[in-house]
Specification:
Blueprint: H1 2-7, E1 16-25, E2 30-42, E3 46-48, H2 50-60, H3 63-83, E4 90-94, H4 97-101, H5 105-116, E5 123-128, H6 129-132, H7 136-148, E6 152-158, H8 165-170, E7 175-178, H9 180-184, H10 188-203, E8 207-210, H11 216-224, E9 229-230, H12 241-251
Parallel strand pairs: 2-4, 4-5, 5-6, 6-7, 7-8, 8-9
Antiparallel strand pairs: 1-2, 1-9, 2-3
Bound molecules: guanosine-5'-monophosphate (2 copies), sodium ion and manganese (II) ion.
Length: 252
């Protein structure tokens, strides 16, 4: 209830910020993009995690506005990175179920790209399987339209949902993000799971991004298993816009 009260008007008061976490090519340890992560700093409650306020924004019907704002922030940022000479990077934006289900979702993405004069190839949309399986034919249609625009679709938190693999077969996604729960447990048994996920993904021509890489040993195992990409505190924490500029200057 507290959160709900303070969430009202928070966007207008400028309490939200988008932070960026590097997406890395694992073998070369090279940044190829950033995941945009919404962050809310309430003057009263302090930092509130998206896990806590996104469901409330969905219930209140304000997620559409918030989602459009994040998308435009992230693409505006991408525009500035490109103007500063970082020409081959991409930005990954999380999409909530209700946002994805809105009838104007695809046209809004198209407009946001056009506003910044950006090709679809710079954008990854992260969607959970829960969002995609509520109406499979409609999801297939929307995803196909986005893919035709050059936009990549990442299945977020892969392996934690309830849906069967038959959905994966039908949905035109091109990236899967292995949930960090799998990366945390790289015991013999845990490694077997990760290996199987990577093998399945590769046989379907999907790119794999491993989440939550915190130590070098995890990166080493993933590289050995042929996992091409990852993110996590080992490489970098989510950063403010100003920190990204410094970070990019340091890696070039
Ligand atoms: O509490 P924590 O910070 O771990 O929560 C992160 C969660 O919030 C992740 O599931 C992430 O996908 C989600 N998230 C982060 N930014 C956004 C956003 O801009 N929109 C949506 N819908 N979810 C986001
Ligand atoms: O569900 P999603 O993968 O979008 O969640 C992203 C969340 O994961 C963000 O809140 C981000 O801060 C967090 N995160 C990023 N890297 C790591 C990591 O290495 N370890 C842990 N525990 N969380 C991470
Ligand atoms: Na995500
Ligand atoms: Mn995830």
């Amino acid at each position: 209830l507290q959160i709900e009260t303070h969430l009202r008007g928070a966007l207008e008061r400028g309490e939200f910020e988008v932070r960026y976490q590097p997406l890395m090519q694992l073998a070369e340890v090279q940044v190829f993009g950033f995941e945009a992560l919404l962050s809310w700093h309430s003057p009263v409650l302090g930092r509130v995690s998206p896990g806590d306020f996104i469901p409330l924004a969905e219930a209140r019907g304000t997620i559409g506005r918030l989602g459009r704002w994040v998308l435009r922030e992230a693409l505006g940022q991408m525009r500035r990175w490109r103007d500063q000479g970082w020409s081959d990077g991409c930005v990954s934006v999380n999409v909530s179920v209700l946002q994805f289900e809105a009838p104007d979702f695809v046209t809004d993405i198209q407009e946001a790209l056009q506003e910044q004069g950006l090709p679809g190839e710079v954008l990854i949309l992260e969607v959970t399987e829960g969002a995609l399986i509520r109406d499979v034919p409609s999801s297939v249609h929307k995803l196909a339209q986005l893919r035709a625009m050059g936009v990549s679709i990442a299945l977020d938190d892969f392996g934690t949902g309830y849906s069967s693999l038959s959905y994966l077969q039908q949905l035109p996604v091109n990236i899967i993000k292995i949930d960090r729960a799998f990366i945390r447990d790289l015991s013999e048994r845990g490694t077997a799971f990760v290996q199987a996920i990577i093998a399945l993904a590769h046989s379907l021509n999907l790119t794999v991004i491993a989440e939550g890489i915190e130590v070098n040993a995890q990166r080493d195992v993933l590289v050995a298993l042929g996992c091409e990409a990852g993110q996590g505190y080992l490489f970098a924490w989510p950063m403010a816009e100003s920190e990204v500029a410094v970070y990019l200057a340091g890696v070039d």
